[in-house]
Design a protein that fits this description.
Blueprint (H helix, E strand, L loop, with lengths): L5 H4 L21 H45 L4 H18 L7 E8 L8 E11 L12 E12 L5
Antiparallel strand pairs: 1-2, 2-3
Helix pairs in contact: 2-3
């Protein structure tokens, strides 16, 4: 290796010299590790947030559809006993299409006037507790992300 002397280069720096700062000597090759660690540290919460928002969106679609279909089924049923059973089955079917079970839902059916009388109205309220994704249910721990509620009212046909 050739060494530069001050008389060889004059006032210009030696073209073969390299300046090493005190902190840069031991920094080689750790950028990949830092990028991977920080990427995972930031990516995991973002992915979990997307999963939670997706579950809430699916739950909102399920609740609105379940309440609407249950009110329609109830208003078109032949008898009050059959109406109640068919409306509850319609709610469970709508919720199962979105991956929710019947244990997470509460259904309230109320009639204005006599149930299934012509021109009376039927109101169905469906409440669904949407659980947090990837969290197992344990006794005494609330794993619900939100409780979603939807109400639908249907008028029984007057001349039906």
């Amino acid at each position: 290796m050739r060494h530069c002397r001050p008389e060889d280069t004059g006032s210009q720096p030696c073209p073969f010299s390299r300046v090493i700062t005190p902190g840069a000597a031991g920094e080689g090759g750790s950028a990949v590790v830092e990028f991977t660690f920080l990427g995972l540290l930031l990516l995991v919460p973002v992915v979990y947030l997307v999963l939670t928002v997706g579950a809430l969106q699916g739950g909102s679609f399920a609740v609105v559809g379940a309440a609407d279909q249950a009110a329609k089924v109830y208003a078109n049923a032949a008898s009050q006993e059959a109406a109640d059973q068919q409306a509850r089955q319609a709610v469970l079917l709508a919720l199962s299409d979105f991956g929710f079970s019947g244990e997470q839902v509460r259904i309230d059916i109320a009639c204005e006037g006599t149930c299934l009388a012509p021109a009376s109205s039927v109101t169905v309220v469906v409440e669904l507790e949407v659980p947090l994704p990837l969290i197992p249910t344990m006794p005494g721990i609330n794993t619900s992300a939100a409780t979603l509620t939807s109400t639908s009212t249907q008028i029984v046909e007057r001349y039906g």
